[in-house]
Design a protein that fits this description.
alpha/beta; Rossmann fold; seven-stranded mixed β-sheet; about 20% strand; globular
């Protein structure tokens, strides 16, 4: 098969059908997101399952998510932490936060999710002094990646898992002359993960229903 975007999507859909399957609550969350004309930038089903398994593998009980959107990835994470766990998720727009809250509550994990409304750079300082987070998922405006990574380290602990989404940018991350602010923010975030002594990190390119993309995975040291 030719390595085309259509083939990537077909393979991704096969993997999702085989390893993730149908999930009415998650599908309802996506439906509510589409009905509200929110951008289709949530993680793919296989990506949601990856976050879920990563939280379970790491034994995470306290999760910080930066970028709620319609609550799709939030539900995946909240299911992973079990009773007594908490996902603190940050959404900049009140109307979008309300859509997410409805979907999260309908999925049965509302008691595990604390939605904070506001810009990440404004909300994150208010979390200082709380117990450290075990896992941090960053999936918000790429221009602020270095701000979010700094707070991930400050609000985490040695061993905290950090996931930075959307690092592939259709391969533009190698373009040093780019003027795309999202690509610039992604490059700066990757450089920070590579040089900041608080992190030990790697990254993987991905192809699939989200095109040519990828994730960075780090641990706070």
């Amino acid at each position: 098969m030719e390595p085309t975007p259509a083939a990537w999507s077909a393979a991704d859909e096969f993997l999702a059908a085989t390893l993730v399957g149908s999930d009415p609550a998650l599908e309802a969350a996506l439906s509510a997101q589409r009905k509200a004309d929110l951008p289709e930038i949530e993680v793919a089903p296989v990506g949601g399952k990856f976050l879920h398994l990563l939280a379970r593998i790491s034994g995470a009980r306290r999760v910080l998510e930066i970028g709620t959107l319609g609550g799709y990835s939030t539900i995946w994470l909240a299911r992973a932490i079990g009773d007594g766990g908490i996902v603190t998720t940050i959404e900049a727009e009140p109307d979008i936060a309300a859509i997410a809250r409805a979907s999260i509550d309908a999925s049965g994990v509302g008691g595990r999710v604390d939605i904070r409304v506001g810009r990440g750079a404004d909300v994150l300082p208010t979390l200082e002094g709380s117990e450290p987070y075990d896992l941090v998922f960053i999936d918000a405006d790429k221009e602020s990646n270095t701000i979010y990574l700094d707070w991930a380290a400050r609000l985490g602990r040695p061993g905290t898992v950090v996931v930075l989404d959307n690092i592939g940018r259709d391969g533009e991350i190698v373009n040093e002359a780019t003027t795309d602010s999202k690509v610039i923010g992604t490059r700066e975030g990757l450089r920070m993960l590579g040089h900041d002594p608080r992190f030990d990190a790697t990254a993987l390119q991905t192809v699939g229903v989200k095109g040519w993309d990828g994730i960075a995975l780090a641990v706070v040291v």
